[in-house]
Amino acid sequence: MDTVILSDWLVARLDRGDAEPVYRQLLRLLQQAILTSQLPPGTKLPSSRTLATDLGIARNTVLHVYDQLTAEGYVHSTTGSGTYVADTRPDRRAVNARKPAAPDHPREDAALPVDARVAPTFAEAVTHAPPVMVAAHPLRHTEARDLSARGRRLIREAGVSAKQWGAFMPGVPDVSEFPARTWSRLQAKLWKQANPELLTYAPGGGYRPLRRALSDYLRVARSVNCTPDQIIITTGIHQSIDLAVRLLTDVGDRAWVEEPCYWGVRSVLQSSGLTLAPIPVDDEGLNPREPDLRTPPRLALVTPSHQYPLGMVMSLARRRTLLEYARQHRVWIIEDDYDSEFRYGSRPLASLQGLDDAGSVIYVGSLGKMLFPGLRIGYMIAPEDLVDTFRTGIAELYREGQLMQQAVLTEFIMDGYLTSHVRRMRALYGERRQILIDAITARFGDTLPVMGDEAGLHFVLGLPLHANDRAVAAAAYDAGVIVRPLAGYYSGEMPSRRGMLLGYACVPNEKIGPAFDTLARVIENTVLRVSPHAA
Amino acid sequence: MDTVILSDWLVARLDRGDAEPVYRQLLRLLQQAILTSQLPPGTKLPSSRTLATDLGIARNTVLHVYDQLTAEGYVHSTTGSGTYVADTRPDRRAVNARKPAAPDHPREDAALPVDARVAPTFAEAVTHAPPVMVAAHPLRHTEARDLSARGRRLIREAGVSAKQWGAFMPGVPDVSEFPARTWSRLQAKLWKQANPELLTYAPGGGYRPLRRALSDYLRVARSVNCTPDQIIITTGIHQSIDLAVRLLTDVGDRAWVEEPCYWGVRSVLQSSGLTLAPIPVDDEGLNPREPDLRTPPRLALVTPSHQYPLGMVMSLARRRTLLEYARQHRVWIIEDDYDSEFRYGSRPLASLQGLDDAGSVIYVGSLGKMLFPGLRIGYMIAPEDLVDTFRTGIAELYREGQLMQQAVLTEFIMDGYLTSHVRRMRALYGERRQILIDAITARFGDTLPVMGDEAGLHFVLGLPLHANDRAVAAAAYDAGVIVRPLAGYYSGEMPSRRGMLLGYACVPNEKIGPAFDTLARVIENTVLRVSPHAA
Fold first, then answer.
1. What is the pLDDT of residue A453?
2. Structural domain boundaries, residue B204
3. What distances in angstroms separate CA A170 from CA A308, A365, A501, B205, one per listed residue?
């Protein structure tokens, strides 16, 4: 190709007024021309002096561009001989390796564009002046590429809410009440010490002083049985469960989940190839039926202190039966103890783990609801014989860090701030819970039952069996109130209950009434005025 | 059972001098007695007044204990009638549900212990005075319970190093050089503003201003093609890959990995059920053979800017072929661009993603090596049609947070500290690299080749083919020097190269020489004095 035509082509496209530096524009234009074979392999580029003069730019600029093109393999230069376009066209035989019995095509004619769909010929480009920006405006396939089957399922069944705040989002603490100044002060103190060991990867298990502090706290608060070494610091319940799944289960293994259960658990388990067996719950908690018991699972996930989302407590009899069953049939139990600090009117109950004498129970918890969700610090208590395995697994799979943050948290706990904050929040959330319960009673009497209200950051407002709780939630969302429909927590087809989770913890006292009024109107319009037969 | 015998039994076991409060001791002892059926179901407990008098403790203490036992279901009380031990024995029919054709046993005789192996009979306990602490010292099964097959594989093939710092750990930046004071100042400023939105869950994708700052930075530094919306903030490369795997692949799908490659990638992929196809690399990078090309994978993981661990750059021709192959056979490419900022002596090269016009490439990177590994902030650039999917996926699977930290990072970038820190580190690491190279040349001439030294935080010191690089690494570790053997990075059985990764970034200048002397002695003793035939 002619040097003059190239210069004309470039001059037509360089825009000195553009924010993009001339260097970059020139680089990009030459790259495109080479990629689209407008400058075919073997073409000799103009000397830097010539091109600089033709374009009216500094020779150094052209030299830099040529250097970069060389470094990236677009061109190669021989001293004294010039700069030539390299042959970097895709190897057709490799690309088409899969096609059966196609005649062997030698490398395409140098004059043809690599891919006729992508750019017009050079001749066309020159005569029809508008620049062809190939790399900048790629022609994208309009059809989205296929997700995998497990990807489609994950998205289809995703339970996460688009909005994460405000009446009546469940499971969210009131972060505006978090003692930010105290946290910041402790944080600044630790950063001042600038200990480089806190800036690098965490050893498997996490910051040892934090494990000690948590071990002490959990032994007293939750009656767990553990030493600091059994504590593994994670980023929260999702990661804790994921780690256990990867180490203790294989694809196709069966996992018992409560029906209903937290959607996040379902997603993590299914995404890892486990088969879920939803087990019904009654007022004593997990209640497996004969067929369930006859096929022992590899894993059972339970929320014995406060069933999520319905709120019942697993009775002592059921706990003992479950533990004995697990021991006999070698089932791993994951005890998800997600919000047991917030029990109103009675002491927190002892963990299932503390009752276990066979090393069947892996206890998991998180500090997010006690402090702030963005913190992403949780913990697992691993049975003693699994500690090394879990430490290796977590370092191998996730490369843990955040030691500085763990150190701040340790100080926060040791100085008593965790306990005092939790106590204060328990009182505040207790108030808000009462305001909401009173509003419900005033409006609906006992028409609509309230379930699981003795603990946690939410309770469930039951709806009649003919109600479509997803539709109610959608209508409420339109009206500006977030409620999570119970249907979203069921793994099976036919939820045995209808209702909505109402989170009150993150709602300022004075906003609870008005938000509830809005919700009540929605319920009245969508559910209570509709007869069971019409639904 | 007799009230007097119970009181005697308790008195023998309560230790007022113990650190553990009497309340807790009494609670624990009664729980144990009930669990082991030493206090069988139906037993009437002494009145609180009587027990308090017998034990010489406050009546209130006994009342509290009885309250807790009631709350937890160990006992039930009828007003005026007394407190009775509840029947919470495991349901034998449930526990044994799986056993075929066993005669139906009615609930066991109340006088027998639930499990004779766990505790002696009450009579024995009384006559042989020493306390039987059941729950506190559980009898654990001495055999570790089985990990799953994928769990065993993960642990067996774990590549993570026990020690994460010091000569010559690869991939670790010098965190003592991190501008901690600046970071702390920005952090304190943001915490002072105490914006509660920064303390809660991150919306899918992460903090928008950070996505904007990264998008600008990456477009310039790495020639990627993206808008801020295409950026997904993750906790690093492990999570980015995990997310892509869960959304785009199914169990059993094939994944191309470079041979050798980063062990973390291998672990994440295998743990998620993918079949790895290790593809050899030559001096132009990934070099698939005919059989590889005939079975297109679902996913291909590549490190085109700086092959990890060997360091070659993927040539432009190979890049174009790979992209064309991916487009034609609908292969997802994950471009892992892990340390491209640290290129010595030439500009960073353009990304593969910037060349892609078919939306095949998912670009992933991390800020850990630029700033500090404990930070755990990374990013993915998702093809446009996958953005929503990835955002939903990350929120569903991991519940992202750390918005405050993302906000600090944004300020750090916008104020120019990222760029200046990287520039400073590039110069420092360049010095260290040179010191180590000079030491190698002085000691070994060109007997042992150095590979991949033009970029990164490490290079590879090649060893003769007869060398056992794992053994060399072990001997070096014993001598106090960490090197990672190349063998650990190969997925297949027969590594085609021998050598060791030497990381120099985290080693103070003055320590490089001495550490290398130690290593050189180890090499001389274990490799160079041994003839190829003797090995």
1. 85
2. 178-414
3. 11, 17, 6, 22
